[in-house]
Write a structure and sequence with these properties.
The chain has four helices and nine strands. By secondary structure, the chain is α+β, with helices and mostly antiparallel strands.
Length: 214
C-alpha cells in the first residue's frame, strides 16, 4: 500500500476513535439518547477485512490521467473515465460493497454563477407521486411517478425475506446479489429523464414524513 494511502487509513482510524470518545462523553451526560453504551471501534480481519481506500492526487498516475485513464498507484486498476482529463481530481476512493467494489472519483468543479431571475420551483415529496414540481413562471408542472420505486422496494423486501429464511448467513452470495439490485434498478431503469428548466434561482421543498414501504 502506498504511503499516502496508508496515511489516509490512519486518519480514518483516528476519526473513528474521536467519534467514539465524543459519543462516550455524550453518553455519560445523556445516556437516554443511546440504545446502548458506545463501543470501541473494531479492527477488520487481518486477511479478509476490507475498508475504504483513499487515493489522493499524489497517489494517482499523472501519465495515465493525461491519457484519459485513472490508475491508482500500486494497483492493476486502469479506469477509463470521462473526468480523467480536464477535471481537478482530488481523490479516488475504492469502497468494498458486498461482492464487488465501487470506485468513486472526486473532483472539484467551479459552481457556475446564477443570475437573480426570480424563477423558483416548489417541490412536494410523496410516495405514489415521488415528487410534484410546480414553477412560478410559464412552465408545465412535473409529476414523477413513485409507484415503480415502491414496487422495487416491496419486491426486494420479499426476496430478501425468502433468502434469509433459507440462508442464515447474511453474507451468502444470494443475499449479496439481491443487495446489488435495488440501486441499479432505481438508478438505471425506473426513472425517465424529466425535463427540468435551467436557470432556476431556488427551490422550496415541502416537508413530508414518508412511511417505509411494507
Amino acid at each position: 500500500m502506498p504511503a499516502k494511502v496508508a496515511q489516509w487509513t490512519l486518519k480514518q482510524l483516528d476519526q473513528a476513535f474521536r467519534s467514539f470518545f465524543a459519543a462516550l462523553q455524550t453518553y455519560n451526560k445523556q445516556p437516554g439518547k443511546f440504545k446502548a453504551p458506545p463501543r470501541l471501534p473494531k479492527y477488520k480481519h487481518k486477511n479478509k477485512g476490507r475498508k475504504v481506500a483513499i487515493y489522493t492526487i499524489q497517489a494517482i498516475s499523472k501519465k495515465a490521467l493525461r491519457e484519459g485513464f485513472i490508475v491508482p498507484s500500486g494497483t492493476n486498476i486502469r479506469l477509463n473515465s470521462p473526468v480523467a482529463k480536464g477535471k481537478n481530481i482530488k481523490q479516488v476512493q475504492i469502497e468494498p460493497r458486498n461482492n464487488h467494489y465501487v470506485i468513486s472519483v472526486i473532483y472539484e468543479q467551479a459552481e457556475p454563477e446564477l443570475k437573480q431571475n426570480n424563477r423558483y420551483a416548489a417541490i412536494d415529496v410523496g410516495l405514489d407521486n415521488l415528487a410534484a414540481i410546480a414553477f412560478n413562471f410559464k412552465q408545465k408542472p412535473l409529476v414523477i411517478n413513485g409507484k415503480p420505486l415502491k414496487s422495487i422496494n416491496q419486491f426486494y423486501n420479499k426476496q430478501r425475506a425468502e433468502a434469509q429464511a433459507y440462508v442464515p448467513n447474511k453474507s451468502a452470495k444470494r443475499l449479496q446479489r439481491l443487495n446489488n439490485k435495488p440501486a441499479y434498478n432505481i438508478g438505471k431503469k425506473q426513472f425517465p429523464k424529466a425535463f427540468v428548466p435551467k436557470e432556476i434561482e431556488g427551490a422550496v421543498v415541502h416537508p413530508t414524513r414518508l412511511t417505509p414501504c411494507k
